[in-house]
Amino acid sequence: MPDTALPHQSPAAPKTRYVWIDTARGLTMIFVVLLHADVVAQAMGRPALLITLFNYALYPLRMPMFFLVSGMLSAALLRRSAGEVMRRRVWHYAWLYLLWSVIYAVVHAWALRDLGPPGMQAYYNNIETPLEALIVTWNNTWFLYALGLFYAAALAMRRLPVPVQVVLALAAAVPGVLNLGEAIGAPVIDRFYHFPYFMLGILGGERLRQAIPRLGKPLILAALAISLLVLAALAHRERILRDPLVIAALSVLAMPAELSTAVLVTRHLSWLARGLQAIGRNTLAVYVLHTITLRVLLALVPPLLPGVVQLPLLTLAAIALAIACGRLLERIPGLFGLPTFGRRPAREELART
């Protein structure tokens, strides 16, 4: 049986694709949407304690993993011309952040402003001013803004020696560790807390691609998962689980644990892997559309099941609906990338976002 966690290449597709990356991205996207479902459920007065505790344990995983994979997928692009990097990544994400911030304002604060109970309305209808969108980034599209900043920073540093890039990436994360940006009223500075993960993907992408499939062994996964859960439980007991330094330390176990899971699932559970990969190849559509689909589902579906069951089901439904809507909306120029009038955005480019 071929090892589907290793590079896959077909005659019609000259570029190698590591399918476990899509599995990992799909799994991480589910965790992100589940977090948002839990937060909104709490705002609605429908908390699910087990889901909340599970989400706490995933803080060292969700965003570090996304930024690591984003860096891995763009390592080759960063070696191309500065103009191409600016167009395909920096301006791409700047445009998406601006566009979807406006779309959210229209949809959530106008079209759907009366949908759901008061707690839900207060959560979704809180729209930033243009200045707040640039320096505060409390909104649900901050990830797009951060990626644009990270690509610009990586481009500016790319001709420096690798050790210097590593030191600068770690130094850029210090304000986020200390919450200095929030203290001075510019939390966007704190977003660089995730920059080292992104640079790890950029600088170590090739080595990581070769090394990660070796993590796909049950004993390795068990050791990583047990260590992570024990340390996370201890951190939660001490009320420091969400401390930035603790999250960074636990991410050293959390990211290999998820990557090991992704490799194992890709190798041995093809039916599950296919579903996760479908999500992983549509992360942009899921990311920008799930706040809308999730709001509609949480508002309209009555709490017929315990929250620990219903929230995961609604999470999966919101993701499926977001992918379906994305397939329809991708025909609109500029909705998922820089406007390219006259042609549809390439699906490969959407999948790499």
Characterization of this structure:
There is one protein chain. This protein is mostly helical and 353 residues long. The protein has one domain. It has 16 helices and two strands. The protein has a two-stranded antiparallel ribbon with strand order 1-2. Helix 4 (82-111) runs antiparallel to helix 7 and helix 8 packs across helix 10 (195-211). Residues 1-16 and 346-350 have low confidence and may be disordered.
Ends distance = 31 Å
Arrangement of strands in the largest sheet: 1-2
Strand content: under 5%
> Largest beta sheet, briefly?
2 strands, antiparallel
Helix-strand topology string: EEHHHHHHHHHHHHHHHH
What is the number of helices?
16
Q: What's the pLDDT, averaged over the residues?
A: 89
Structural class: mainly alpha
Over the alpha carbons, how many angstroms does the gyration radius reach? 20 Å
Shape: globular
List how many beta strands DSSP finds.
2
Low-pLDDT regions: 1-16, 346-350
- Please give the share of residues in helix: 55-70%
| Domain count | 1
Task: Note the main attributes of this structure.
353 residues; two-stranded antiparallel sheet
Give a quick precis of the structure.
With 353 residues, the chain is mainly alpha-helical. 70% of the residues lie in helices and 2% in strands.
